[in-house]
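ingest -> validate -> predict -> emit
validate: passed (alphabet ok, no gaps, 176 aa)
predict: started
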Amino acid sequence: MVKRLVVGLSIGLVTGIVLAVALVQGLNVSFMTAGGAVLAYLAAAASGGIVGLVTGKPIWASEGKIESILKAAVGAVLALGGMWLLRRFGTMPLDLTALKAGIGPIGELPFTSLPIITGVLGAFYEIDNTPADKDDESKGEKGGGGKVRVADKAAESEEAEADEEEEEAPKAKKKR
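emit:
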């Protein structure tokens, strides 16, 4: 579980840092300008969606497409809430001029806010996708409530009914 936490946190941080670098260095975007709040929320939603697609069960995994799309949608909404929290309560000023990222509060710097949001989401999604223990899987095979195919259940119930009819037939002959 700790390994999954570290992997999810790492994927999330890398995603947030890459998006922040693309915004600040590539597009020269700042969240402290006149339309900065709108840009901050759009960047947060995009980063939450991307993290939802690649962490946990990624979209390219078999049987992972629907789950990943749902995680992306929920991740976008959670990232919006995270950005609101950071912009509202993350008022500690930082000087990131050495990284050419500006000076300002944590919630208004893409180099701080986006990695925080994506790191938390990545860790959450990766922990959520922790596979079941092998002990749980072996219990399922022994009839302890694991996954069973419907066709197997139908065949078992038909066999049980046939066994019951065979047991009832000799009893009926003995009573006559």
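The chain has two domains: 2-134, 142-175.
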